[in-house]
Amino acid sequence: EIVLTQSPATLSLSPGDRATLSCRASQSVTSSSLAWYQQKSGQAPRLLIYDASNRATGIPDRFSGSGSGTDFTLTISRLEPEDFAVYYCQQYGNSPRTFGQGTNVEIK
Amino acid sequence: QVQLVESGGGVVQPGRSLRLSCAASGFTFSSYGMHWVRQAPGKGLEWVAVISFDGSNKYYIDSVKGRFTISRDNSKNTLFLQMNSLRAEDTAVYYCAKDKQGFTYQFESWGQGTLVTVSS
Which A-chain residues 19-48 have CB contacts (< 8 A) with chain B? Predict the structure, then answer.
């Protein structure tokens, strides 16, 4: 099973700041099969990024994903008030498909 | 637009059964793989099960194999999760999720979730 470790656990930033979230896999993720999801409090998750770097439909371009192999990054170029949430990475290239434990982006 | 509405959650004693439903609309249900993903209170996300567009292929996480059964009724645009022999560790919000494209395990759309609490 691929274990995904997200860091930091909590990121305290202000609106307008740049956010950089890390997701590290315990072994190489097949074909960059990695996604990022956003979950706001009390809501269902939302797909942001798939195949490591492709934005899902309707996702603003301030969200970008990068990486391959075992190291992946989600960058939010300029935080908007609605971006404060928990972010999860997920690998879907290997069975079982697994999620990271999440990074909480909170208002500083 | 895509809409997924789960129902059937509740409080159940350990060892008992529960059946979850997910009513789908806004897309051609019979063309997509569908998943159940759960989230224990205050915890992260865990994929549970998937069913192919026509119901011919089903896969489960090891911890629910032999206890949970995923199924679908394409004539009624509805996804199901039959949960038997429930355990305390099955307590979670259960989300149904639409696959992005067939059977990719990318969760493109999600329902609002239904809470299952296993407790005596």
Answer: 35, 37, 39, 43-47
